[in-house]
Specification:
This protein has a single domain (about 1-125), classed as Alpha-Beta Complex (tt1808, chain A), CATH 3.90.1570. It is globular. The two termini are about 20 Å apart. Helices cover about 25% and strands about 35% of the residues. It is built from 3 helices and 8 strands; from the N terminus they run E-E-E-E-E-H-E-E-E-H-H. The protein has helices at about 50-60, 90-95, 110-125, and strands spanning about 1-5, 10-15, 15, 20-30, 30-40, 65-70, 75, 85. The protein has a 6-stranded mixed β-sheet, with helices on one face. It has a two-stranded antiparallel sheet with strand order 2-3.
Length: about 130
């Protein structure tokens, strides 16, 4: 997963650009973008970033879009339009299909997220 610049920002003239569209997280595997994750503060609704996540998923052509506040996780399957709350990201499913010997760089928004990623990776390496 990594931060992903969606657009460099609209050109406003004289070389000045508007703010970039940047996804909080993009889950990729072998340069194939799988999912966009928009993370918001815990005091906001878990669906606060849903519109943003869908917009970015559409631009990046990912199958899944997620919106979270760290407590709840809302998932959209961009292929089937199915929407639902989930208890975890599809990261475990993705971890099951990737080559674990490949190196990965993961950017985490919080320590809780970092621990969850570490634990998911460690469980995969043990099992």
């Amino acid at each position: 997963m990594r931060h992903e610049v969606i657009t460099p920002g609209r050109l406003q003239g004289t070389g000045v650009r508007a703010a970039q569209d940047i996804a909080d997280y993009v889950l990729t595997y072998r340069n194939h973008k799988l999912a966009v994750i928009e993370a918001k503060r815990r005091d906001l609704a878990d669906t606060e970033g849903l519109g943003q996540a869908k917009k970015y998923a559409e631009k990046l052509q990912t199958r899944f879009a997620y919106s979270t506040n760290g407590a709840g996780i809302y998932q959209v399957d961009m292929t089937t339009d199915a929407e639902q709350y989930v208890s975890q990201y599809r990261a475990k499913l993705f971890m099951d299909i990737i080559d674990q010997s490949e190196k990965s760089l993961v950017f985490c928004a919080t320590q809780d997220h970092a621990r969850a990623v570490r634990d998911a990776r460690n469980l995969r390496n043990i099992g």
